[in-house]
Design goal:
Elements: H1 3-24, H2 27-45, H3 48-56, H4 62-95, H5 97-102, H6 110-136, H7 146-173, H8 177-183, H9 186-192, H10 208-212, H11 216-228, H12 235-259
Helix pairs in contact: 1-6, 2-4, 2-6, 3-4, 4-6, 4-7, 4-8, 4-9, 4-11, 6-7, 7-8, 7-11, 7-12, 11-12
Length: about 260
């Protein structure tokens, strides 16, 4: 069997393993998925009218705020879902299964690849579910073309891949599942201090650089531009640069830790 065939076969096996784990123990994924859904319902139905008046500059109409908040929460959903990846990887590292895999005649990187592909698939499914909730409460994107929808889906997938690699690295360096969950908390915290809920211009001057110069804000603004027709500017290229940089960082970090000889 060729090197490529062996890698694909073993990675597919590890992918099935991780998807079976997610199906048998769905509580972690569901708990993490509930966070963006609850925030969506809370901000739309509790603060929606007031926030719409502030953002739209007109009367109170929560539809304005629904359109504004959904793109950000789609990306926040990805951050929430990948925390489960960090926990899953940490469990594998601490429970000894990785040591067992090292002794088997399998492709060395297939274990990590299975985690990454499985997490990206779960992130995409979670985004679809949160998007469906957004549509059910009034989100509409009538002006987006098929190409713009495809670009939006591609951006979400790339962002999921980037955060997944970072989550895998966090899981590998964490001594247990609790530490992995805590280490991955920035993946939920950063969207809270981005342009998810309010425009960056509405924040205090000293805080605006914190919200602007981070991976979530340019990705959110790009997604809004694709789905709602707002100005994208340089945010598209910045978002792609963040995706590539985080993916490369997470990949080499995870590979270095995984290839390290166990103590």
């Amino acid at each position: 069997m060729s090197f490529l065939s062996l890698a694909v076969r073993d990675s597919s096996t590890m992918l099935r393993r991780n998807l079976l784990h997610a199906r048998r123990y769905p509580s972690l994924t569901l708990n993490l998925l509930l966070t963006p859904i609850m925030l969506l319902l809370l901000f739309v139905y509790i603060f929606g009218d007031v926030m719409s008046a502030g953002i739209g500059g007109g009367g109170a109409d929560r539809s304005e705020y629904i359109a504004y908040i959904v793109p950000g929460l789609l990306l926040m959903t990805i951050g929430s879902t990948t925390i489960g990846t960090a926990v899953s990887v940490s469990n594998d590292m601490s429970e000894g299964i990785i040591a067992r895999f090292r002794t088997m005649a399998i492709h060395r990187s297939s274990v990590i690849t299975g985690h990454v592909v499985g997490s990206v698939l779960q992130s995409v499914m979670s985004v679809v579910l949160v998007g469906a909730v957004g549509v059910a409460i009034g989100f509409r994107s009538t002006d987006a073309t098929a190409l713009e929808w495809l670009a939006a889906f591609g951006l979400l997938t790339l962002f999921a891949l980037a955060l997944t690699w970072i989550a895998v690295g966090m899981g590998m360096v964490s001594p247990n599942a609790e530490a992995a969950s805590n280490n991955a908390m920035p993946l939920i915290f950063l969207p809270l201090i981005s342009s998810t809920f309010v425009p960056v211009d509405a924040m205090p001057g000293w805080f605006q650089p914190i919200a602007e110069y981070q991976p979530f804000t340019p990705a959110i603004e790009t997604l809004r531009g694709l789905l709602l027709g707002t100005e994208i500017g340089n945010n598209g290229w910045i978002a792609l640069a963040w995706c590539v940089a985080l993916s490369a960082l997470g990949y080499y970090w995870s590979k270095a830790v995984y290839n390290r000889d166990p103590k």
